[in-house]
Amino acid sequence: MTERVTLITGASAGIGTELARVFASNGHRVALVARRVDRLTALADELAAKGGAAPIVIPCDLQQTDAGDRIAEALTTAGVEVEYLVNNAGFGLFGLAIERDRAEQLNIINVNIRAMTDLTLRFADQLIRNRGGILNLGSIAGFLPGPGMAVYYASKAYVLSFTEALRCELAPKGVRVTVVCPGPVPSEFQDRAGFAPGFDSAILNVAPDEVARQAYRGLMANKRAVLPGAFIKLVPFLLRLFPRSFILTAVGGFQLRKR
Ligand SMILES: NC(=O)c1ccc[n+]([C@@H]2O[C@H](COP(=O)([O-])OP(=O)(O)OC[C@H]3O[C@@H](n4cnc5c(N)ncnc54)[C@H](OP(=O)(O)O)[C@@H]3O)[C@@H](O)[C@H]2O)c1
Fold first, then answer.
1. Mean pLDDT over all residues of the chain?
2. Which of 62, 128, 163, 192 could form a disulfide with 179 if both were Cys (CB 3.0 to 4.6 A apart)?
3. Residue 86, ligand 1, Cβ within 6 A
4. What is the pTM of this model?
């Protein structure tokens, strides 16, 4: 039988690194994707030293349209099939969409939407054959419009909608599908996005390792969605109490003031 792996994108930092640790500690062989190969290699060495199966390191830029082909080739060369797919890689950019660089913003779509969709559809047959699962990193941002981070919020709305729909399609095939929707998580995300100082509220922070633990448990229990943190769990409910126009004004007022 072909050996099975958990493919994790964005494993070089933050939540992705912690997800790799959680999957490996639960006996999964992992295949690690990101651009920074030194980080991936160090993580692979760490996981192998703990006695897990040797991780597969796949340096790859998910902004490139051939990223899916390159990942598939690397897995074929290694002689493995995907059992679990973790679409974690992602980033956002803070500021007015009409002012920030257009090409950089289109790369949010390439990574958060295009690559995630490509890998999900491309490996669906393997996930079905192996009765595995998909864990997609959405965000609480996917539940509301985000002036001041418009493309990012919209990309996470796509992740949420796409993942829930796929869950319905894949349920009869025995594949678990879970979307994780964190609030603020301290990681490299904030620096890359260019957050203004004081933008994030430390009270709401949930650590990356805690997000990863809850996400893994949620996927294995085949939960539709995992919202780490007590307050974040309330957000979708609270949003239903207010008209969309009010939420838009409130989010815009907060985020645009922090610019
Ligand atoms: N941090 C938060 O507050 C927060 C909240 C809600 C949701 N999320 C979501 O959680 C996920 C992980 O975020 P994080 O907080 O762990 O961020 P992070 O620390 O910045 O890590 C992002 C990961 O994505 C990878 N990545 C980014 N662009 C890539 C590209 N072009 N090609 C390949 N890999 C790429 C990075 O690897 P390389 O740079 O090495 O390529 C890195 O491993 C994202 O989808 C994010 O939207 C984060």
1. 96
2. 163
3. no
4. 0.97
